[in-house]
Request: fold
Amino acid sequence: MISFSYAQVAVATPLNQLFTYRIPSALQNQIKQGARVVVPFRRKQVLGFCIALSDQPPSDFSADKLKEILEVKDETPVFSEKMLELLQWLSDYYLAPLGEICRAALPTRLTQVKTPSQTKPRLKEEEHSIFHQAEPLQLMEGQKEALQKLIDRFQSFSELCSREGEAPTALPAEGATRAPIKSAFQNPSQPILLHGITGSGKTEVYLQFLNKVLESGKEAILLVPEIGLTPQLIGRVQSRLQSNVAIYHSGLSDTWRQIYWEKMREGSVKVAVGTRSALFAPFKNLGAIIIDEEHDPSYKQTEGGFYYNARDAAILRAKLEKAVVVLGSATPSLETFYNTKRGKYEYIALPERATGATLPEVQLIDLKQEKLAPDSKTLSPTLKAAISENLYRGEQSLLFLDRRGFANFLLCQDCGHVLKCKNCAISLTYHKYPPSLVCHYCDYHTRLPEKCPECQSSALKLLGEGTEMLEEELKNLFPTARIVRLDRDTAGKREHRHEVLHQMKKGEVDILLGTQIVAKGHDFPNVTLVGVILADQSLFLPDFRSSERTFQLLTQVAGRSGRGDKPGKVLIQTFQPEHFALQCTRQHDFKRFAEEELQQRESLCYPPFSRLAQIRLQGSDGDKVKKGALNLKNFLGRKKWEKDPPVIMGPVKSPLAKVRGKHRWQILIKAFKVKELLWLLRQAQTQSKEMLPAGVQIQIDVDCLNLM
Ligand code: ADP
Ligand code: ZN
Ligand code: ZN
Reply:
């Protein structure tokens, strides 16, 4: 066995570089690539990850100056070679320190210098399946075809692997004949888009496919967006899959995270279901990754750590590990859809609902024509009447308003002053339960003032209806109805949310109202009316994706209606009924929406016709931030390009110009080649020390989804 004397180690610091350490001879036989180590770093002992081993010291260092590794924590490395490759790629692409990415890919307990002793977990796992249906459904024609295509693809991988001399995986025979294998020649790691309308039975296809993968002895990951991890889905997955399942959700304790991680690594749990971080499940023999609701913005991490897109990272992982990758959505992102159009991804459609139900009839209510009902601040007479009729028929209604709290802002009718957060450039939302003005960005709370702080007038008015106001109104208008509100304020506790969804399913709720939490993923067969209180909210955000977001959101909400035996109806209140995003929602016409939106994107060279990155500069001194932004822009603009140069836009004040006391400016870079984009961003990153005044921080977001 060769032993190495030097190790390159990634430590979790903001510095995007590796450090070389000497390996004392006692540890030379223990240390492996991908293992955790303890190293001295700036007079502290920190946890690091051994990225590479070598028998030569780095050329610019004399060997005796190097510090020594203190401890090797793993006999079996926590990261496989392929996983390290993935992490390295993420580090290069998202310009984030490898050490931080390594940390993000592990359960917290494994990232500590001293591994805490395991506290005894509760024996029972936290989730129960509340809906039990252990038998697979008889698939509809379309579902069958889709499933067969996935299986063929999986098969072609096995073919490829066995040709390469890897262990072949025997696939259980599917009926008497097996579909011919086009395979190997058709690029096996080509992602597949499963574009199925809401209720088309995508989940059923995933489950049956995953069982095939499991039967062949391989492992699988099912990624879902934050909101998508409903008790319903968890129940379905647990009762149907032929393996124990690791469920990753935000409420999962550190202890459970570690337990699941270890079980996956030793092979006793073969499926991981969950949000972003499930992507890093430590499987050795990964067969498939499914990314449900692939368009969902919550796949993009935009806080703490590094800003990566779990969907894109998953596609790469699948490629590295020769696993099948399936992207599912009723409203694919334009990036993904465009990739199917130019042949980069395969396209499979499920254009019908699996239960035979038809898509609901969608009606747009023009609030310019039809004024709100005289006794309401939220409902038009048409919507109000529809709710009433639904109650009378004993059917359920679901109302969507994407704004929590009671009122959006407090306005002085004398001087026009709007009460803002003192830390953020954002108006304060009035909450009635308990009464206070709250900042939705930094959680600053204050009491409702009696007088305007600017002019002392007492003519203060609450404007902009939120879910609390809607709830209060509904209770007044329909006193006998059983009304439940679900938003981040009421759904703070998972148990409560699960309870409400359970009640809904059992028919103990007449009207469910809420924010995006109610809009996505649920399957309530008795909901026959969906009402959207104001569609315009997302339409006017200063973001080139605002039409896309609106279309996606409305299509999702609309898809909650008429999923069972009775036909459904959707009423959307708006000031912009002529907007094409709304028109396409009304006609359930994704294709037309995509064509039109793609044309606009192309004419403006926005993604998917270019790559977009944001450089955000922030600091507590607004002038310094601005100065730094201008410096950096000038610096980046100096480079001369041959043709199709990247476009550097800004700097401009961010639409959310101040958050948590930090002023924000941004530079956007549009580029046609990834290489050029990354080159510029790397310049910005390495030069930021010189370009930016003290106290101004730089944050780089590649393929940014959030332009605020
Ligand atoms: P999606 O994930 O596309 O929204 P689901 O898989 O949740 O769709 O299916 C929607 C509903 O249709 C569910 O209630 C599911 O049980 C039902 N369903 C799915 N496939 C079938 C089928 N082949 N036959 C009957 N019902 C089905
Ligand atoms: Zn005033
Ligand atoms: Zn604030």
About this structure: The two ends are 54 Å apart (CA to CA). The pocket of zinc ion (ligand 3) is lined by residues 421, 423-424, 439, 441-442, 444 (CB under 6 Å). The first strand starts at residue 6 and ends at 11. Residues 128-132, 167-185 have pLDDT under 50 and may be disordered.
